[in-house]
Specification:
Elements lengths: L8 H20 L8 H11 L21 E2 L14 H4 L7 E8 L3 E2 L3 E4 L10 H5 L2 E3 L2 E5 L5 E4 L1 H14 L7 H19 L8 E10 L11 E9 L11 E5 L25 H9 L4 E6 L4 E5 L2 E8 L5 E5 L11 H13 L14 E4 L4 H9 L3 E8 L3 E10 L2 E4 L9 H14 L11 E4 L3
Parallel strand pairs: 1-4, 10-11, 10-17, 14-15
Antiparallel strand pairs: 2-3, 2-4, 2-9, 5-8, 6-7, 6-8, 7-19, 8-9, 11-12, 12-13, 13-14, 13-16, 16-17, 17-18
Helix pairs in contact: 5-6, 8-10
GO molecular function, one term: branched-chain-amino-acid transaminase activity
InterPro entries: Aminotrans_IV, Aminotrans_IV_CS, Aminotransferase-like, B_amino_transII, BCAT-like_C, BCAT-like_N
Protein name: Branched-chain-amino-acid aminotransferase
Length: 445
Amino acid sequence: MAPIAVTPPVEQETSSRLTAQGIERSLAKTAHSNASPLTTKLTHDSLTHPKTDSGVHTLLPQLDASLLQTTFTTSPRPVPALDSSERASQKICTDHMIQAKWSENSGWSAPTLQPYGPLSLMPTASCLHYATECFEGMKLYRGYDGKLRLFRPELNCNRMEKSATRIALPTFPTEELLKLINKLCATDGPKWLPRDEPGSFLYIRPTMIASDAALGVQKPKEALLFIILTCFPSMDDRKGGMKLLASKDDMCRAWPGGFGYAKVGANYGPSLVAQGEAKAQGFDQILWLFGQDCIVTEAGASNFFVVWRTREGQLQLVTTGLKERIVLDGITRRSVLELARERLTMGGCAGEELEELEVVERNFTMKEVEDAVDEGRMVEAFVTGTAFFVAPASLLHFRGQDFEIPMATEHGGRYMSIIKGWLKSIMWGMEGMEQHHWGHVVGED
């Protein structure tokens, strides 16, 4: 196999160091939200604050949810039926959205809750030319106990700040972003997720774009944060499992020292051609590989897991590690790993008749997958993410050969199914899980 070109080690180390320094400088701009007054003054005076005509440094406003200005819609939108084509279209949003503007000279403006509608951008806006855009994917759940919930939303907010700083967008106090998300959910959630539809959800899309109208390759001086809620179909309940097409030698989604760990638009646009070709050939997603050894990374935009037995007989749950930052630190991924370590290791499977297993985060290759299938050691495989949630994989196609993955039932393997059940119980506040600390209850306006 021809090797995939990567940045030479010395050059990569230098560029990575420069990127890290730039990110550290950006993160320092929010130091006053969690640092001592003295540290705040030194950090901001030396790094971020412009001087007035008198030479005195001024403190730029941070994102502050308490300043939210509210304008309710006068033209409320109808809520589509759960099984309607409108809901499945992924184009229907709720009545309101939240916006907040930032500029290099004036900091963050007061955020606004306003009627959902189009944005106004100049054709020279940075995001339209240089992919200066990042986002998050979350869900608002209507629980079986009647409550609205978010699932570990603080992790999404923390990850969004990391994504923003990776592409030279402004930082923000993550707790303020969560407050704004919570407010939008509390405003539109009761209408769009009525109490008589438990088990339903809305998709939450916080987004930040560089709105700077200056056409030039430079750090943006203006940005826009917005949050929307949209109707979204369930994508995890299909029967038969997903069919994955392994990427070819001329494809590469992410690389060490790059930005594969960040949820930025530049990670997604270049993958769409391959994704379209995979679907045209009858597959559901691309299984992205990296390098000469064909390291398994992600399945489409989802994290990928296998359950297999080593040649020595040890049962393992394995997924690609985060050390090289070539896969996304998925919230569902992290939750699967934490639940598996807590309940599937060291003495059994929480009352289930399942063998305990070892949880492993490391790079693994398609050759290891091939061998596990050929030698009868593969137990199951599945993908995780906000959109697909937890979904089984039933087939991998690699270099002209199909590798069938065992499935205990048409809905997936036994380990995947029990983990998925635990997650659903937390997300939807099912009996015994109403007070789980991963479930963030949203008050209803």
